[in-house]
Amino acid sequence: MSGTDSEHTKEWDFWITGGRKSGSWNKIQVPSQWEQQGFGSYNYGRDYVTYGKKFKFNDEVGLYKHKFFVPNSWKEKSINIVFEGSMTDTDVKINGQPAGKIHQGAFYEFKYDISDKLKFGKQNILEVKVSKMSADKSVNNAEHLADYWVLGGIFRPVYLEATPIENISWTAIEAAAGGTFRSNIHLKGIEAANQLKVELFDGKNILVGESQITIQKGDTLKQIQFSVKNPKLWTAETPNLYKAKFSLNKNRKNIYQTEEKFGFRTIEIRKGDGIYINGTKIKMKGINRHVWWPETGRAVNRNIDLMDVQLIKEMNMNAVRCAHYPPNKSFLQICDSLGLYVLNELAGWQKKYSTEVGKKLVKEMVTRDANHPSIIFWSNGNEGGHNFDLDTEFAKYDLSNRPVIHAHHKPENAFNGIDCNHYEDYYSTKKILEGESIYMPTEFLHAQDDGGGGTSLADYWELHWNSKKGAGGFIWAFADEGLVRTDFNNQIDVNAINAPDGVVGPHREKEGSFYAIREIYSPVKIELKTLPKNFNGIIPVENRYHFTNLNECQFEWKLMKFKTPFSSESGFDVLQKGKAESPDIKSTEKGNIKLNLPANWKESEALSLTATDLFGKEIYTWIWKISSNHEISKQFQKILTKESSVSVGENDSLFILKSEEKEFSISKKDGLLKSVILDKKGKKMTFRNGPVFINGKTELSSIKSFAEAENHIIEVVYKDGKKINWKLNSNGILELNYEYSLSGDYLFAGVSFDYPENYVISAKWLGKGPYHVWKNRTQGQTYNVWQNLKNSTRTGFSPWIYPEFKGYFDDVSWLQLDTAEGKITIGTKEEKMFVRLFDFYGIYGAEGFPKLPTGNISFLDAIPPLGTVLAFNINNETSALGPESELNHLNETFKRTLYFYFGLPDLGDEVKQFTMPEVNILTD
């Protein structure tokens, strides 16, 4: 009738009562959201929450018409018209006759038997009236008064379902881990059929079990039960699927057949202990997911569903919450086949359905979805949207009697032994975990802008992993709900601060949190940060799988050499590689990976290790530096072969360090770099006003200039003990040595300079990347020579160009800025230097957070943590999010050497120069 999804649509006739293109018949693609087809008006559900009764939704009504043909051969069949999702009240007529009662509820599959209303062998007319707002107040409360876009129309497929008069209307399967298979088989129209048969097939389509029973005229429900020996069990790590084939037979002749995929697995809630799958305690590494695509809203397709499951799995997650309504069917099918634990939710954002409507919708949700092994829980609404009268309704249709939970934000609402309280901080989480209930927050670490998500996650995850009652949880949220606004020239709108809550963008652009989550949740847990001096190729590892031995994974090492600053390339060259033996380490146990490196491994600059799972998918790649920054800086200096004499001049206000071509002016007043001149023609580089110490005020104590061998030094001492030494080397490198001491709690520590951001073209650096970091989100970034074209991306907002150019970058050995004035190359001799590039914030509100250091290019020994939008960003008070989120506790003296080279040196063969060929220019 309609198309099958958002990519394969059919054109119907359409009339809308209000908004754009209203008042006349047009054409519309089905399935779709009518706003995305240029009709009606946009609504964001939270508008009502913000303005209360003063706000009125656009109460638009869409009228659909479609002609369809039914063949004569269908006369003896039972025919249903099926709607998989329509927002909201849906009134269906076939050839002018009502198909049945108006359906209320947007996210649920419903059907009508229209066998007696059809004209066979002729054209039929389908008329559908869809009201965006429901006539039932509780449906509006549950589905529309919410923190998401409210979009109208028939957004999932519509089709005819033709079966014999005698058929199986639906089945409910329970397949336990011990091999027991049970099924409730709901029958319709049984007259002559006298036998019901069930056959089970494994993943290779081999018959593994069968049973049959006799049925009688008028039977509407039969149960079949039998056992399968040693079934392969379904888990998120081992998504083994079976197929059940149900047959209706009349005297051994098949008259109807249907199939269902399922998995053998047992769910158990052991109160005061944990959640068990097949007798093994599991912890949820989960995320909340809306059904969403910017161009089409909630009308999506299987490719989008597949991409989302693959991205969630790529983050090493094992669970997903369907927020805040049941998804389309293909998403659950993919969760079954690729392996994700699913929390399937009845709608109700913060208000609930009435009991009358809610009972119908629970039935529609559960009868559609009951046989998916991926579904571990039913969720009866969200954050107060729980109608407790519905708690017992789920089991009426779910033979496996899955647990029902309440996704809530009040601790007293713990249900079925599970507390799902939202947005607790680290320390209140700790307290809950000491209580009676299992704790599994269905929302935590709200990821608006760049906050939350992977930020602070490491502390939370360790808390849950090591706690008896910690069951993991579900981060809010997967993707920014950015909508292509057809009324605003197709700009993407995230409704200000309401919807940029994802760890991926609207088109699944990956934020820094994506990679942090991937490392933190890696089931192969490696904590080694740097290679010890006595490293012998043995790497300690912990197996954080629940069911998988690490001997089922693969491990490959590589020895590498990084590209140099003045090379035209980024990345590294692989010098050698090999396979490590997969260690025999059972789930939740610890051991070692032995790399068996060659004897000359220390001659390389870096070592990488890639872990791959039993399906051939990369789990994570770790990279460790072998060469120190001191060794790397020596290589950098060896490139600069041209030398010239160095001198120093001065005037009333400046010391001027001079080489053959370059001049560097240092202020006598404060010891700061004031100007850089690149050549004899006086070409300037506007890098200046540093190093400014970003903590405390500095007052000059003394400044002097003196010669040291062939070099000249300017020594600066401040009254509070801070020191600066400037030195111009004969190879053109300007060397800066500085020293400062801090005692106390600080957002950041280090020095800053000024440079015009609008002059910058790109950055290249050796260090961790390619994304910026925070003190409490350094995970997910690896060593390499990275290169990034300048952008002004604000995380979560258009244009979603990632990685962001601005931010704090971790463990930088050298940085090269390509600018309109030339190249600026800066290296460090010491380890663990952060670089800050320009002005940015992690969270945007009335003010940006956290605060920034002075200047706009900084070389730092400490950087700030980031909070979340909900409670922990005020005055950068992030400490409630855990130890990693506390301010930097400093009590030490910092000493660092920076090397500056301005411009592009004469590198000989190091860089291939491009020469324009000779040409003849012809003119009139």
Précis, in short:
With 924 residues, the chain is mainly beta. Helix content is 10%, strand content 39%.
Structural write-up:
- The protein has 924 residues and is mainly β.
- It has 5 domains: 10-164, Sandwich (Jelly Rolls), CATH 2.60.120; 168-262, Immunoglobulin-like, CATH 2.60.40.10; 282-520, Glycosidases (TIM Barrel, Alpha-Beta Barrel); 524-627, Sandwich (Immunoglobulin-like); 647-908, Beta-galactosidase, Chain A, domain 5.
- 10% of the residues lie in helices and 39% in strands.
- It contains 9 helices and 61 strands.
- The protein has a 9-stranded antiparallel beta sheet.
- A hairpin with a 3-residue loop joins β21 (267-270) and β22.
- α3 packs parallel to α4 (329-338) and α6 (426-433) packs parallel to α7.
- Residues 909-924 have low confidence and may be disordered.
- Monomer.
- Belongs to the glycosyl hydrolase 2 family.
- Pfam families: Glyco_hydro_2, Glyco_hydro_2_C, Glyco_hydro_2_N.
